[in-house]
Design a protein that fits this description.
Pfam families: Glyoxalase. It comes from Spirosoma pollinicola. The mean pLDDT is 92. Strand 4 and strand 5 form a beta hairpin. The protein has 130 residues and is of the alpha+beta class. 16% of the residues lie in helices and 45% in strands. The chain has a single domain, classed as 2,3-Dihydroxybiphenyl 1,2-Dioxygenase, domain 1. It contains 2 helices and 9 strands.
């Protein structure tokens, strides 16, 4: 029996563009996104640099060997159930997760959140509206 999965509802990049997230080596990065984060490969491109579009629940991100600093970028993912999302990620055996939930206020919305740092250095925050 497969355990329940959380659904991504939105993605907001930390910098300008969730469709241009910097990675040093696309081939090394892809398995993490497919195996751990549950994305599937939609397309690849060689120009203007190596890149790949990934999708989960209709939400797309693009990893690109664009020379950017991954430690300065990432995305905030809104999910329907942040606790289910954490359980799903922990079940993969990946351990670079801050498993303690915190509350963050953005405008008039309070979010219950946790953080994941990918092996490529990109940081992701998963959150649910409270």
């Amino acid at each position: 029996m497969q355990s329940p999965q959380a659904t991504l509802k939105n993605a907001w990049p930390y910098q300008q563009d969730q469709m241009n997230l910097p990675v040093a080596d696309l081939e090394t990065a892809l398995p993490f996104y497919e195996t751990i984060l549950g994305f599937r490969l939609v397309s690849r491109s060689e120009t203007p640099h190596q890149s790949a579009v990934l999708e989960r629940d209709g939400i797309q991100i693009d990893l690109a060997e664009n020379g950017g600093d991954p430690q300065q970028d990432g995305c905030f993912f809104e999910v329907d159930d942040v606790e289910t999302m954490l359980t799903e990620l922990m079940a993969t055996g990946f351990d670079n997760i801050t498993p303690d939930f915190s509350q963050q206020q953005h405008g008039n919305v309070t979010w219950k959140v946790f953080f994941v740092v990918a092996p490529d250095g990109l940081c992701y925050c998963y959150g649910q509206r409270q």
